[in-house]
Amino acid sequence: MKLSVKKSTHKTKFQFDIANISVPFANTLRRTFSTLCPTISFSPTNPDSIRIEENSGALHNEFLKQRIGLIPILMDNANTKGDLTLRTSYDPTTAVDIDGFETARREWSFVSTDVPTFTLEEGSMVRPPGESRKMRDITTHNFKPHFADPTKVRAIVNYFRTDPYTDEAVLITCLNYTSLNYSASEKLNITCSLVPNLGKYHSSHDPTGAVEYSFQLPTDEILTSHFEAKFEHLNNERIGAGSAEYSESEKVQLRDNFDRLDKYRFFKTDDDGQANVFNYAVESIGFMSSENIVLNSMKVLELALADIMASIHIRVDDNTPVIEKYYSPKIKYMDLEEHNVNDGMRIKITDENHTLGNIIQHTIRKMYLKGMGEEDVLKLANYKMNHPAVEEIEIYMSLHDTVTESDMDTFITKALSAHTDITAANLDISSENKPALMYVSILLNALSKIKSDVKKLLAQFQTKQVGELLFVER
To answer: For the residues 277-298, what does the mean pLDDT come to?
Structure first.
C-alpha cells in the first residue's frame, strides 16, 4: 500500500490518497475515522458529567444537557494537552455489562490527576444602552475551568475552538435581559466534568463533520478514449436508424453529460478488476485537527484487532492444546446452526460491528476460501451482524472436505507458534479438538494480517509527520 498526502487550503479538512488496498479495507478506514477516535466531551447520559444546579432560562434541562453534550472539546491545544492526555488499557477477562449484554471493553481514563471541571454561572443583566436585542448569548466563552491546584490557570479559549470561519464561540443558550433586581432574573448554575469515549458508543464523541472516500479516476486521456468509444457507438446507432450524425454542439453536450455522470463508472483497478486507489477527505468539527483524527483512530483500530487476539486463549493440558472457551466475555464459540448443511463453527465477537466484520470476512476469504484464497482450506467463510442495534458479529467458517488431519496438525502448529506463547514442538492435538483449533487459527491469522496492514499504513502517516497521538497505553 502507498500513501499520498495532498496539500489543502481547507481549514478543517485533511485529504490523502491510499493505493493498493481492497474496498473492504478502504471502508473499514472510513468507518474508523468517525467511530474509533478517542475524544472527550460532557456526557448527557452520565449523571455525573453535566450537573444542573439551577436553570431558570427558557431551555428545559434535557435540551440544555443535549446541547452541552455536543460541544467539541479541544484536545490538541499545546497549552492544555498535559491536562487532557488519555490513557487506555484492555483486560480481556474483565466483564462489562452493556445494556444487558456482557463483553470485555477497552477502558479510557486521564493521565493527569488534576483534570479540569467547568462551571457555567450566569444570570440575566440589565440591557445595556443601545442594545436592541432582548436576550444575551451564553456561549462556551462563559465557561470557567477549575483545577484542584488553585495555582493552575488556563484560558477558556484553550478548551473550546471557535468557528474557523466566523470566529464565533459555540452558542449554548440565551438569557433575557431584565430591569429587575438580579435575584429575580434568569440564572444558570451548571458544573460539567469531562468523559473520554469513542464515537462508536455515542455520537457526541464523533470528531468528524464528514468522512468520505471515492475511487480514483483514470487519467483524462483514458476518460477521453472511453467517451470517444461511447460516442462512436451512439453515432453508429443513430446512423443505423436513418438519422443524421451528431453535430459538434451535440457532441459537446454529450461530453458534458459524460463528465457529470458516466466518467465515475471508470476508476483505477487491480488485476481482479476491483478499485484499489482511494481518495479520502476527513473533516474535523473541533475536537482536534483532522490529521490527528486520522492518526489516533487508526491506532485504536490496531488496538481493537489486538484486543480480539488477546481475548482468544489456548491452554495446554498434558501437551494437548485446548481452546479456553470462557476466558473472555468478548469471544463466544458455537457450532453452526442445525439448519446449516455444513459442519463448522461460529465465532461471536461482542462489542464489534461492520467496521471489523467486513474486513475480517474479506481477509479470511482471500487467504483461505477455496477458489479465492492462497490456501484452499475453507468452503464457507462469512460473517453477519444479527441486529443493527446490537454490537456483535458472528464469523462463520466450514472446512473444505479435502482438508486432512495431517493438514490441520501442520496448520494449527504453525499458527500457535506465531500467535501464542505455546511451544509447538511435540504437541498432541486430539482429533476432536482439531476442527475448532483450525477455525481459531484461521481467525488469528486473519486478524494478524489486518493488524499488520494497519500498522504499515500507520507508519507511513507517521513517517510523513501527519498528526500526533493524544493517548498512551497503560
So the answer is: 94
Q: How far apart are CA 431 and CA 345, in angstroms?
A: 16
Specify which residues 122 forms β-bridges with: 188
Identify the CATH assignment for 39-205 out of 3.30.70.1350, 2.170.120.12, 3.40.50.1970, 3.40.50.150: 2.170.120.12
Q: Is the pLDDT of residue 424 over 80?
A: no
Closest to 13 (Cα-Cα) out of 180, 181, 207, 149:
207
**Tens digits of residue pLDDT in 223-267:** 999 999 999 999 999 998 889 899 999 999 999 999 998 999 999
Residues 437-448: tens digit of each pLDDT? 999 999 999 999
Chain segment 141-172, per-residue pLDDT in tens: 999 999 999 898 899 999 998 888 888 999 99
- Residues 6+ positions from 332 with CB-CB distance below 8 Å: 325, 347, 348, 350
| pTM for this predicted structure | 0.90
Instruction: Supply angle C-alpha 190, 192, 198, rounded to 5.
Output: 145
DSSP-derived secondary structure for 283-343: EE-SSS-HHHHHHHHHHHHHHHHHHHHHT--EEEETTEEEE-TTS-TTEEEEEPPTT-SS-
CATH top-level class for 300-463? alpha beta
What is the pLDDT, as a whole number, of residue 81? Answer: 82
| DSSP one-letter code for 269 | B
What are the CA-CA distances from residue 365 to residues 17, 20, 119, 195, 446 (Å)?
A: 26, 18, 54, 39, 9
Whole-number Å distance between alpha carbons of 334 and 326: 12
CA pair distance 54, 122, nearest whole angstrom:
10
Give the pLDDT of residue 179: 65
Sketch the domain layout of the chain as residue ranges: 39-205, 217-266, 300-463
Cα-only R_g, the chain: 28
* Rounded-to-integer distance, Cα 247 and Cα 224, Å: 18
Helix (H, G, I), strand (E, B) or coil at 192: strand
Q: Give Cβ neighbours of residue 245 (< 8 Å, ≥ 6 apart).
A: 235, 238, 239
Residue 330: CA atoms inside 13 Å, Cβ hemisphere, count? 22
